[in-house]
TrEMBL record:
It catalyses: (R)-pantoate + beta-alanine + ATP = (R)-pantothenate + AMP + diphosphate + H(+). This is Pantothenate synthetase. Homodimer. It comes from the Bacteria. It is found in: Cytoplasm. HAMAP family: PanC. GO terms for cellular component: cytosol. Pfam families: Pantoate_ligase. The active site is at 34 (proton donor). The gene is panC. It comes from Marinicella litoralis. InterPro entries: Cyt_trans-like, Pantoate_ligase, Pantoate_ligase_C, Rossmann-like_a/b/a_fold. Beta-alanine binds at residue 58.
Length: 257
């Protein structure tokens, strides 16, 4: 597996790639959810490239960025074992030669749900994903459905800017107790980790949106929002210091509001 940490080296590599490329963009601290994206990429592309870049512009709280888990050695060995061809690991200076003076903003969906609680978050996500798509020029790029709003915004951006990459969405991978896999789960305390699966259980419970929200707030979460987006029920809630998100299919619009 090639490790590429400069734009020049990446572009030299890209020129010589023959065949389809599947890109899996990540911020590291990899788990089985990321590996499912890698497997999906492998199944439909000759080459799989994973980027690891903890993108500072999408963190609206310095503390969250500083404490973002870093498990680089483990990440690299998992990716090598999974048959990834190249890992692209740029620095901030390389990814943002403009120091983030140029930004990509979506003006509708990005202001709702997570966007309403994390100002600037989706500007950072869309800007870095656009940079990665332009650099890597993949045939397909793979994203998890856990970040459902992010996925919708990336699909919209690719369409709006005529980007020649197919965005492939992959199902949420869960722990045995239902908790959606997330790099941030590593930061939950032992007690919080026991409570965390209640987020998914509550989304699935037979109750109204108001009752679900009240229940989560009662058992220790601080709910940012619990709301329907299209055919999904989305939730974002903080447990201790850790903000968790999740979503489930929602097929009874109106009934449970
Ligand atoms: O979902 C993530 O890990 C990040 O938001 C992404 C897409 C890699 C952009 O930094």
């Amino acid at each position: 597996m090639l490790r590429i940490d400069s734009i020049d080296a990446w572009q030299a590599y890209r020129k010589n790639v023959d065949g389809d490329i599947g890109l899996v963009p990540t911020m590291g601290a990899l788990h089985a959810g990321h590996l499912s994206l890698v497997n999906a990429a492998k199944s439909s592309n000759e080459h799989v490239v994973v980027s690891i870049f903890v993108n500072p512009t999408q963190f609206n709280q310095a503390n969250d960025f500083e404490k973002y888990p870093n498990t680089l050695d483990e990440d690299l060995s998992q990716l090598a074992q999974s048959g990834v061809d190249a890992v692209f690991m740029p620095t901030f200076e390389l990814m943002y030669p403009d120091n983030y003076i140029y930004q990509l903003t979506e003006k509708d969906l990005s202001t709702q749900f997570c966007g309403a609680h994390r100002p600037g978050h989706f500007d950072g996500v869309l800007t870095v994903v656009m940079k990665l798509l332009n650099l890597v020029q993949p045939n397909q790029a793979f994203f998890g459905e856990k970040d459902f709003q992010q996925l919708a915004l990336i699909k919209g951006m690719v369409k709006a800017f005529f980007i020649n990459t197919q965005i492939v969405s992959c199902p949420i991978v869960r722990e045995a107790d239902g908790l959606a896999m997330s790099s941030r789960n590593l930061r939950l305390s032992a007690i919080e980790r026991k409570v965390a699966p209640q987020l998914y259980a509550t989304l699935n419970s037979d109750s109204t949106l108001k009752e679900k929200t009240e229940h989560l707030n009662t058992i220790g979460f601080d709910v940012d929002y619990l709301a329907v987006m299209g055919d999904r029920l989305l939730v974002a809630a903080t447990l201790g210091e850790i903000r968790l998100i999740d979503n489930v299919p929602y097929d009874m619009p109106g009934d449970k509001a």
